[in-house]
Amino acid sequence: MKSWFRPRIPLDGFWKFRIDRELIGDKEEWFKGFSSNELIYVPSSWNEQNPEWDQFTNIAWYQRDFYVDGSLKDKRAWIVFEGAGYRTRVWVNNEFVGEHEGSFTQFKFEVNSIKCGSFNRIVARIDNTPSIFNLPPARELNVTAFDFFHYGGIHRPVYLEFTDTCYIDDVTINASSDGSLKASINTVCNRSINVRFALMDKELSNVLFEEMVKDVKPGVFKYERRFDGVKPWSPEDPNLYNIVVEIYVDDTVRDSVYERIGFRTIEVKEGKIYLNGRPIFLKGFGRHEDFPVLGKYMHGAVLVRDFYLMRKIGANSFRTTHYPYSNEHLDLADEFGFMVILEPPLCYSGMDRILSREEVAKLFSSEEYFKKAKRFVEEMVKQHKNRPSVIMYSVTNEPPSDIPEVAEFIKRMSSLFKELDPSRPTTFASHRSTRDLALDYVDVISLNYYRGWYSEWGDIERGTEAMLKEVEQIHQRFPEKPIIITEFGADAYLGLHSDPPQMWSEEYQAEMIRNYIEALIKRNYIVGLHIWNFADFRTPQNPLRTILNRKGVYSRDRQPKLSVLIVSKLFKNIPTFIK
Ligand code: GCB
Question: Ligand 1 centre from 58 Cα, in Å?
C-alpha cells in the first residue's frame, strides 16, 4: 500500500553503528543508546561498507536520533522496515517495539513511545548469525544452502509512518482482463466509517470512477465492480491504474491509500500459460539483488539501468531468485511490463553440503519448520499480491525433493499458496530432474539444468543432449504440464576469451546458452527459458567460485559479455505471445 496522505519521516542516511563482537550489547543495554565512533549508511548491507565488517555475521547495532513534529501528537506511529536482517529487534526511546525474522519482506511495528515536539532515538539490533533453521538455511558464512553472499544489515528503506486512529490496514485487489475487479479492504476504527473507492489513471491525475459507500462496519469490507473500457496489462502494453481507498468519519478523511494495479488474467491449461486468454512464452533471467558496496540494496538508478538492459536484450520476465525483491524492484516490473515468478527465501541448492538425508527428512517434516515457512510466505504474498507483474509463485528453489518428506512439504506449501491467493498458479524450481517426487504438486514444472557445466564439463553438445533427454522424459510423464527451464548457463570471466570455446571463457558461456535455447525452443511444451543469471553476483567462498558467481551475461557492474549479443538475437526471435 502506498500513501501520499500519511505523514512520513524517512530514516535513510547515516546511522551510528557498532559491531558486537564480544556479544556484550544486551548486557550493557545498548538498546538504551550506545557510544560508537563508527557510522554506516542505510539502506545498504554492512559488509562492503568497511573491509573489517566484510565477513562479519553476528550481531551489530544501529542507532539514529530524529525529530518528530508536535503536530503529530494524536496520531498512531509505525516504524516500517522495507527489509533488514536476518533477525531485527527494535527499540524506540528505550522501549522495545518488536522483533522480525527474515531479510526480504517488509515489516512494521506500532511505536507507543514516540515523543512529539521532541527528539527520539531508535536502536536496531541486527543478528545475521547463520543457522540451519534460517530461511534459507546455512551452517556458517561460507557453508550455506544457497549460492549467494549472506549479507547483513538494514538493506532497504526505513521510515516512520503516522496514521489516524482510524486507518486502512490492508487492501487486496483482484483485477481481471475483462475489467472485473474484486477488492477486500481491512479497516481499523472504533465506529462505522464511509469508504471512498476510486479508480484513477496511472499518474493519479484523473478519477475514472468513484463511489462512496456509507456506514461501513470496520473490519473486512468487500467490494466488487466491473469496469468497462479499461485496457488490460500485458508485457507489450503494461497499462497501469490506481485504486484509491479512503475512509471518512463525519465527512472528514481519516486515511487514504492507493495501490497500483493492472487488469490481467493468468491461467494454466492445455500445457500452456495464458495471459489475458493468449498463451505466453517467458524469456528472461534469474536475478539477484546484489551490487558492489551496496550489497543487497539495489539503488533506483541501478534498477532502472537493469530494466532497460533486460528490455534491450529482449527479455520479458524474471524470477525473484531466491527471495522476494524490494518494492522498488517490483514497481519497475509492473511499470516495464515484466512478468515475475515470485519466490520466497526457501532456497535449498546446497542442502547436501549442510545436512544429511536423515536430517533433511526430519527438518522438513517438523511442524514448527512448516509454520515458519508459512509465516515467510504469508508476509511475501501480503506485500506483493496486488502486483500485475507477479504472474506465478515459485514455492521453493532446488529443494532435495527426491526425499518423500520434502515432496510432502512442497505439496503442503503449494496448497498454502492456493489458499492465500487462488488467482495465481504455482511452480518450484527443481534440480532433481527425473528423480523429483514433487512435480505433480504444482501447476507448472520448472527445471534447472547445468549439464555441460557441473557435469559433462567442457562438452556443451553432450551436456545439451543429456539435458534434453531428461526434459523429454519428464514431459512424457506430465504431458499436460507446461515446462519452464528456470536455470541454465555457464560461468564466464569478463574478458576471458578462448577459441575453441573453453570453460570460463565468454565464448563457452555464449555457446552453451545458444545451444540450450536453440534445442529447447523447438519443443512446444517448453513455455519459458530463464538464463542463469542476469549479472555476476557475490557468493560464499568456495573452490567453485572466484569471489563471484560469474554466470551473469553482464558482469557485476553491468558490462556486457559476448552472451548479450547472442541472447539478444535469440530472444528477439521468440514472441511473447505464442501459438
Ligand atoms: C543453481 C541455483 C543458483 C546457483 C546456480 C549456480 O542451481 O539455483 O542459486 O547460483 O545453480 O550457478 O550453481
Answer: 25
